[in-house]
Amino acid sequence: MCGIYGIFDTSTRIDDHHRAWAEQARCWLQHRGPDGHQCFDLLDGHGLLGHLRLAIIDLEGGAQPLSNEDRTVWVVCNGEIYNYLELREQLINEGHQFRTQSDTEVLVHLYEQKGNALLQDLEGMFAFAIVDERKRAILLARDRFGEKPLYWTPTNGGQGIAFASEMKALRTFPGVDLRPDVAALSQFLFLRYIPAPRTHVRGIRKLAAGEALAIDASSGIKRWRYWEPRLSLNGTGKIPDRKEAVEEVRELVRQSVRLRLRSDVPVGAFLSGGIDSTAIVCAVRELSPDAKFSTFCASFDDPMFDEAPYARLVAQHVESDHHEVHFSSAELLKAAEALIDHFDEPFADASMFPTFVVCREARKHCKVMLSGDGGDEWFGGYREIFSHSSWHGLRRTAGVNRLAGGALEFWSERWRGLNLLTFLSKNDWELLYPEREHDPVLSYFQPDCREEADEGLRELKERSSYHARLPYPYSSMEETASSYLPEQILVKVDRASMRSALECRAPFLDSTLVRFVTSLPLHYNVAGGRGKSLLREALPAWVPPQIRWRQKQGFTPPLARWLRCELRKPMEEALNCNLHSLQVIFNREPVMALYREHQAGRDHSDRLFRWFVLARLGATC
User: Fold this and answer.
1) Predicted pLDDT of residue 410
2) Is 504 a residue of the active site?
3) How do residues 349-385 score in pLDDT, each as one tens digit?
């Protein structure tokens, strides 16, 4: 895990301004790689690769940039190639010579063998840049699932490129266009995050999960997706029976954990006592029965949000060195604005606060952590996927949507059945895409900006239309894996962990495991009003019912209360002062109305936190 940056432009030499930028980029990315730094000039002064190292594998010999035997192919990589030992053995048998024991070195030799097609052979989390001096070409790529970030800006009319692991390192690049991207801002207000390729400024873009970008001396920038999540309605290939599927899931989870335990530094795990983290911790103990192993759990003052008792049960059985990280709201919010700013882009997931605090504590004991991210996406763990799953037939019956919608007009919010009635009132498209939110989002923009804001919303609708080729909830599962997972969940984990120089690995984001799970019919995972049926059954026999059959409990702090108490003053300052500086784009009146209603008792915390985050743009511009 590291920070990378660089420049590639075969028509323009690197000058003093570019070198000054490279030094600034090193400073901005220092938190990602505190163990070492190197920056090399390439291509006779037309290229530059920089790397800040967090040493995990080959502590003595793995410094980057790394090259092939004749120093014509160079690489910098942020992340880990988990199957590097298998690839290394193959490449040695084919005559390649290695200088180090680093996982990253396999990239240059595999590129020599396969060129850009090397991406299909990699199992890992990564964002890398490979420079080919013979072809005068560069290849940038992100891993399939989007665990590691990569931002870029075009140079010299698209003939060159500058790139970095975080957006903050590109903001000072000479000539970058920092004007607001209004379409991206409308997407943020709709989603809580900005999906690739946009950022909130026009001149900086980001690679999507499973995307690559290439430039050579004869052509400009080319981008393509080499992998995307694809679900099938009834599964694919030969469908195993349920018992076989459970056994295969159990074995594939073990295999994935085995790969992600490869490290020359201590590895620990986050443990909430939920299904995902319990499955991973159990696999670790099965693979390493006698090893010392640390687990970490967040503990909240409010028992409604506290999962520590469940985590304690699991930790006691696997005999891990367990740490409960207890904190109050005051401790969480102490660095709220600084953490929001650290994300560089508008990002409104309030669970960033406890995630950061737990990562900071874990870093005192470990350099690498295993997390349960991805379990909900592939095993049907989100409530909207499995709740009311037995009612889809009735919902799709002619006339039911209209009847349920009519009944809702007279239904009190205090009466039982409101959620089911709302579900029955919607067709598949309405469950997938809340188009009714378009007009409220557009009302936040000044009239002169609404056409551009609408462009951003039309992009989102077009993407959802593709997923709508599948019936609900398949469409929602595919969209969640395509957007919410890489753009919100994994962004949060990367920024919160790397701020403390901590590497997080996610065993559920394994291509073999995902390929198997997504080949199965939905009812294998969604059954009896619960999600994750296969994963629950795959847990060891000793796991008690209160763990095995737990409902999902999000890692979410009490945001509604915060905005009425601890964050009330900062929120009012944000709306009255910081947001005022963005008035050329935004109309403050609808926002102020939301805030007044929230203080009067309604819960608008989700929307208001987005505005709290956006207002930081006004404070930092």
Assistant:
1) 84
2) no
3) 999 998 999 999 999 999 999 999 999 999 999 888 8
Tell me the two tokens of residue 144.
């399939």
Q: How many CB atoms lie within 10 A of CB 58?
A: 15
Owning domain of residue 285: 242-380+477-548
List pLDDT tens digits, range 184-203. Answer: 999 999 999 999 999 999 99
Element (H, E) at 40: strand 37-42
Indicate whether 110 and 193 sit together in one domain. yes
Distance CA 188, CA 27 (A): 28
- pLDDT tens for each residue of 553-577: 766 788 899 999 988 998 888 888 7
Q: How confident is the model at residue 621 (pLDDT cuts 50, 70, 90)?
A: low
Q: What per-residue confidence (pLDDT) applies to 437?
A: 92
439 falls within a domain? no
Coarse DSSP helix, strand, coil percentages of the chain, rounded to the nearest 5 percent: 45, 15, 35
Query: CA angle, corner 579, sides to 577 and 581, nearest 5?
Result: 80
Q: Are 382 and 274 spatial neighbours (Cβ–Cβ below 8 Å)? A: no
The domain total for the chain is 3
Please name the residue ranges forming H helices in 266-363: 275-287, 308-318, 329-333, 336-342, 352-362
For 451, the enclosing helix (H) or strand (E) is helix 450-467
Q: In this structure, how many other beta carbons lie within 10 angstroms of the beta carbon of residue 268?
A: 25
The catalytic position among 2, 282, 297, 366 is: 2
147-170 pLDDT, tens digit each: 999 999 999 888 899 999 999 999
CA 345 – CA 205 distance, rounded (Å): 11
Burial class (CB in 10 A: 0-12, 13-18, 19+), 7: buried
Question: What is the C-alpha separation between 75 and 57, in angstroms, rounded?
Answer: 16
